[in-house]
Amino acid sequence: MAQNRPQRVVVGITGASGAVYAARLVQLLVAADVQTHLVVSPLGQRLLQDELGMEGVDLAALAGFEPEQAAPDNLIYHHFKDVGATIASGSFQHDGMIICPCSSNTLGSIASGSAQNLIHRAAHVTLKERRKLVLVHREMPLSLIDIRNMQTVTEAGGILAPANPGFYMLPKTIEDIADFVVGRCLDLVGVDHDLDIRWSGRIAKRLRDTTTA
Question: Looking at domain 8-212, does it have CATH number 3.40.50.1950?
């Protein structure tokens, strides 16, 4: 991270199931005092409504704030059609972009170099500037088209981080499962967090005790 600017992360939300991951990601970035630049596709907005009951893009709610609170200053929203936004330029320095969740349509657009909206454009800029681009793809099973698109993005420098939670932490809630995926994403872009997702001897012992009980 440059010494003369805050830590910055760009977040895209698209129309694959997994709104809980998106909301938790934004919440933790804001709490870590990271300047968070958010773009939500139209199907991403529908996702937030269908899975979180959110009307429109409610920045305060995404940040985990109470209804009467204003949106945090470090959460900046960009309209998906605004391809002239700051994050569409390579001169805008940031520490990584995370698309969470990432639909197969978005994956395909990035792989093909087709910039239909600001999320695609920002992703292409992230790749060309050799910054970290993390795609939290959430589809199964995968078609050969998806697999080839993943290969193309990976060869271009992107990171495919499918929403595949580990269960060695013995999660008890949906939030525990979401934290595992989101914590790994934060690791990939260098954002500190205190989520309990690390493998350790303590975890191994807990698993042994559970399986032998």
Answer: yes
